[in-house]
Amino acid sequence: MREKLFRWESILVLLCVAVFAWGSASTPGFAEADNVSFLLLDYTEVALLALALLPIILTGQIDLSVASIIGFCSALTGVLWNAGMPFETIVPIVLVAGAVLGSLNAALIVRFGLPALAVTIGTLGLYRGLAYVVLGDGAVTGFPENYRPIAADNLGGTFLPYATLLVLIVGVLVAVVVHHTPVGRSLYAIGLGEQTARFSGIRVDRIKFTLYIVSGVLCAIASLIYTLRYNSARADNAYGMELIAVAAVLLGGVSIFGGRGTVFGVASALLLMAGLRNVLFLNDVTNEIQNVINGLLLIVSVLVPVVANLIRRRRNPAPAAEPGPPPQETLPDPVGATAAHGTPEEDQR
Amino acid sequence: MGAPEHPSAPLLELRNVSKSFQAVRALRGVSLALRAGEVHALAGENGAGKSTVVRVIGGEHQPDSGEVLLDGETVRFSSPREAQQRGVAVIHQEPIQFPDLSVAENVFMGRQPLRPGRRIDRRAMTRRAAEVFAQLGVPIDPVRQTRGLSIADQQIIEIAKALVADARIIVMDEPTAALSAVEAERLFRVARGLAERGAALLFISHRLDEMYALCDRVTVLRDGAFVTTERMADIDHDTLVRRMVGRSVEQLFPKRDTEAGEEVLVVDGLTRAGVYRDISFSVRKGEIVGLAGLVGSGRSEVVRAIFGVDERDAGSVTVNGEPLPAGRPRTAIERGVALVPEDRREQGLVLELSIERNASLARLHQVSPGGITRRSKESELAGTWGERLALKFGRLSDSVSTLSGGNQQKVVLGKWLATEPSVLIVDEPTRGIDIGAKVEVHALLSDLAAQGMAVLLISSELPEVLGMADRVLVMHEGRLTAELSRDEATEESVMYAATGNGRQGSAA
Amino acid sequence: MSRLREVLSGRELSIVLALVVVVAVTTAVNPSFLNAQGVHDLFLNASIIALLAIGQTLLVITRNIDLSVGSVMGLTAYLSGQMFIADQGTPTIVVVLAGMALGAACGAFNGALVAIAKVPALVVTLGTLYVFRGIDYGWASATGVHQINADQMSPSFLSFGSGSVLGIPHLTLIALVALVIAAYALHNWRSGRELYAIGSNPHAARLAGIPAGRRVFTAFVLSGALVGLAGVLHASYFGTINASVGTGKELAVVAAVVVGGVAIFGGSGTVLGAVLGALLLTTITGALPILGVPAFWQRAVDGAALLLAISLDRAVMLRLAERLRKERSLRRA
């Protein structure tokens, strides 16, 4: 299994190299420092969302509300700024708001035992709706000049934007936690066998709850960057960005069923997608076509391992374990569907 | 190879069937003849190839060589569906059904009676289902939802399915594992009825006494190879075991006498409404206490509540004098409690994770000095316990799903012993593992007790409880009904209490 | 009475009750809510969502989901506009059939990936949500036709969309016909019951020899055709089309289906419930402005209703479990 993942990540790295080589060769201006900065900056929010989603998907859950949290937090930023609140005060409020929205997801999913898919489809609509309630469909601009460089400028004299530095720091933190700590080990165990994790003394509920709160906070940070970067607070900011983030995570080799995937894979996928987007953008490929490509990338990223698996299994069928485990469910199962699969009788424990 | 004195021709026959999966030769030249009116036992240790035989007969696997004959003609089932259409029905240990649909729909799925216009005739469906249940002597309401039925009732539904499909060959794959004695007896009655009406039954069980009670002939497999087919009446218990194991089992229950020390685990007044109530007992240092009772009597629920994975309504638990809070498995582990759970695959192991990851799962902080998990410490831990428990494996980084049942159970035991518990609770520690591994587990439990561990042993196999326990607690419908000393505990006295016949005996 | 109870199970009955309450309260505040025009509009608006909900129910019952419905609807609506640009005299029936065919093709694409390639429906349809929408926009920018107005369509097409029989809008009639056919098939045909079986336990379905892949694929195609129909009806009713038609509809549809009592993890629920769910949500959305709730709240209604519905279901289930446990405890005592 490890070798297979390793191979998947190698493919991603090769694709990355190919895209960047192709971009440099075919597209004037691609390799210039300014453009590389722009390319990186352009994916700041997506990268933060993907880093928030990775641990959640590792546990076999999902959060589709991430982009709507950005929308709400952005709208909130706009309203507070309009009301004359200083930006220094707005930042902590928005971070808390992100945490609150995340914990509402968590409460419904973890405490109340509802399926994550259904809950976060619901909050995807609810949070976006609340964003409109807060701000209406107008835009707020004119954010303070002294803060905007944090979201838009580069680290003194380099091509590396501050925002990308932030993403790198978050990425390293997530990587350490996921791959080198007890919590990280627990994430994989939960994704592959939640009951066993519970029976091993892993505090499954607490971990899941925390993940959604962290996700909310990361979304809030992403919203601040987004708002400052475009100097525009709108209720429809980052509309549909959950798709790109989910696509990046899955393209990075993370299993939608949980328990498989690495931060390195997701990072490679992000770089690949950012590079591709930039090359296409420089070649005047429209946003609509980019969306088609993102959608296809998402499908292909899940299709490839499934097909590879099918081919392998056809070549050499699995040995019969005894007493046989129920064959791996190949029928699609909406993510998180198992969460609330309890029934009155089953819940008696 | 069948018993030549049997007059009727076999309904279904396997001739010299072989089947390999990659390098594993699951079946090597197995022959087996099932005759109408006969209940045929299939015996063998785990890994002997019983499940593969079931899958070949049921159409899930196709043999690499050899023949399957149905009514004397060679057949090749390409799918379970085809086998079903030719009159083969497989009844699994845990029936796989549609919980959202009604009982009648489960019975008739795919062959519902139709009215003109290809419309399902629900009334006829309900009526016929009721008829079948009446015929089986088991009253199940055909229109109720299947969700929530007991496993015993679900098996009856599977049998009803087989009847409705006019199945003539019925394979029962460990049907009694989760059944109480009463339910098992009901199943046997139904099975005999089926045989009398001309069906051929293949019966698989780990319990030899059941084979003697029910079956006419037995075929023994060992390591995928055919050993013998005999009339049940012609083969005694010890010979049968010897054929299965291939060597004599000197001592299945190597229990050492130990001196019980002070009380380690004290349970007082544990209650969960509707599940169990007022459970009080203690386990002392160096003692193995057996917890007996039928499946569903609340045994597993009690120990899960002690460990903290399940809630409890009232009562207290103390370990070495320290109270255990409710619902906190991690605290229980820290205070020295370990639980080897009932369901190895779902509760004991993460099958797709490696041996080393599984082994360290219950003590992650101990392989993570400074909060950073060290792979070297993980392998060290797994390596140590693998060696101590004589674990057979390829590499420590192999996923545990590649191990046999017995070796998987050793990983679970190692995982829990690594937490250095003072109380070890083992729930069905030898379910579904071969006899060799069983003996090893028994010896290990005996050694641990001798070294001063307090052991609480739950088992559905009475001989295991009687053979291993210093003291036996018996539960019936959520209550403790007896506490028997090693001398008082006999099959009769335990079953008497397990079926709800009041308190008797008194233990020290 | 028992017959009625059979048709209206507990869930459907409670939606009808909720509907009555919403209508009663709103009418009390503003009697014009219940006038002929108001009811007419309500049913019209609910009809399109209802068609989508019927299709979605077929999928959710089998433990699948289709998040691409809004995009498919947009694509087929845009197709009907383009057909009139090509030839304003195109017969209505041709447009309807073409829309359904395109919808079915989109459904077949989703279905093939789900049923044959075994990619989870959530992922497939989240992807095609953007793929189909992208094609829609791409088509618009490639042809330079960003908006198609009523005067470019055939009059018969427009009157088909806005017409009615005996006061019942055509759209509502079509939705009712679809409802009756789907409900009949799901209840009475083997293949209908098999959809429930697949969702209830996929493994058991395979053992029972149910051709799960084929059934799921068919469900996607049928659902796609219904979505295609909804897109065409949208075009004929509103008379104005751009590439953004149907954006975000997936949320409304999933909410309607879940509110209607279809279990998100498959195996249970009815199309009648889903349609009633669609009607209830449409009614609430229509009632909010009358009750003085700011218009922007409407955008939050579907999400909130979905969360409320699953939470209530869960609460009822937990209460039931608790009661069963207590009863058993008493019985034993």
Kindly describe this structure.
- Chain A: InterPro entries: ABC_BtuC-like, ABC_transp_permease.
- Chain A: GO terms for molecular function: transmembrane transporter activity.
- Chain A: It is a multi-pass membrane protein.
- Chain A: Keywords: Cell inner membrane, Cell membrane, Membrane, Transmembrane, Transmembrane helix, Transport.
- The complex is a heterotrimer of chains A (349), B (508) and C (333).
- Chain A has 349 residues and is mostly helical.
- Chain A has one domain: ABC transporter involved in vitamin B12 uptake, BtuC, CATH 1.10.3470.
- Chain A is built from 14 helices and two strands; from the N terminus they run ααααααβαααααβααα.
- Chain A has a two-stranded antiparallel ribbon.
- Chain B is an alpha/beta fold and 508 residues long.
- Chain B folds into three domains: 236 residues, 3-Layer(aba) Sandwich (Rossmann fold), CATH 3.40.50; 174 residues, Rossmann fold (3-Layer(aba) Sandwich), CATH 3.40.50.300; 71 residues, no CATH class.
- Chain B is globular.
- Chain C has 333 residues and is mainly alpha-helical.
- Chain C has a single domain, classed as ABC transporter involved in vitamin B12 uptake, BtuC (Orthogonal Bundle), CATH 1.10.3470.
- In chain C, strand 2 and strand 3 form a beta hairpin.
- Chain C is globular, with a radius of gyration of 21 Å.
- The two termini of chain C are 38 Å apart.
- The interface between A and B is large, with 40 and 58 residues.
Q: Any guess at the CATH architecture of chain A?
A: Orthogonal Bundle
Percent strand of chain C equals under 5%
How many individual β-strands of chain A?
2
Q: Output the CATH class name of chain A.
A: Mainly Alpha
Largest inter-chain interface?
A-C, 66 and 59 residues
Low-confidence stretches of chain C: 1-5
Q: What overall form of chain A do the CA principal axes indicate?
A: globular
CATH topology of chain A: ABC transporter involved in vitamin B12 uptake, BtuC
The number of helical segments of chain C is 14
How would you sum up the global shape of chain C?
A: globular
Under CATH at level 1, the class of chain C stands as: Mainly Alpha
Tell me which CATH architecture of chain C applies here.
Orthogonal Bundle
% residues in beta strands of chain A: under 5%
Elements of chain C, N to C (H/E): HHHHHHEHEEHHHHEHHH
CATH fold-level name of chain C: ABC transporter involved in vitamin B12 uptake, BtuC
Distance between the termini of chain A: 35 Å
